[in-house]
Amino acid sequence: MKKYGMVIDTKLCVGCGACVVACKTENDVPEGLHRDWIVEEVTGKFPNLHMEIRSERCNHCSDTPCVASCPTGASHIKKGSNIVKVDPGKCTGCQACVVSCPYNARFVMPEGYVSKCTFCDHRVEKGELPACASVCPTHAIAFGDLNNPMSRVSRLLRARKFKTIIPEAGTDPNVYYLI
Amino acid sequence: MKEITITTNKISNMVNGHFHAWGWEVPLYLFLGGLTAGILIIASVMAFRNKKDGFALSSGKLSLWAPIILSLGMVFLFLDIKHKLFVWRFYTAFEITSPMSWGSWVLLMVYPLSFLLILATIRESYPGIFSFVNKFLSFLKLDVLFRKLTEFSEENYKIIAGITIPFAITLGIYTGILLSAFGSRPFWNSAMLGPLFLVSGLSSAVAMVILLSKEHKEKSLFTKVDIALLLTEGVFILLFLIGLATSSAQYKAALALITGGALTPSFWIFIVMFGLLIPALLELLELKGRNINPKLAPVLVIAGGLFLRFIIVEAGQMNSWLPY
Question: CA of A107 to nearest chain B CA: how many angstroms apart?
Answer without folding.
Answer: 7
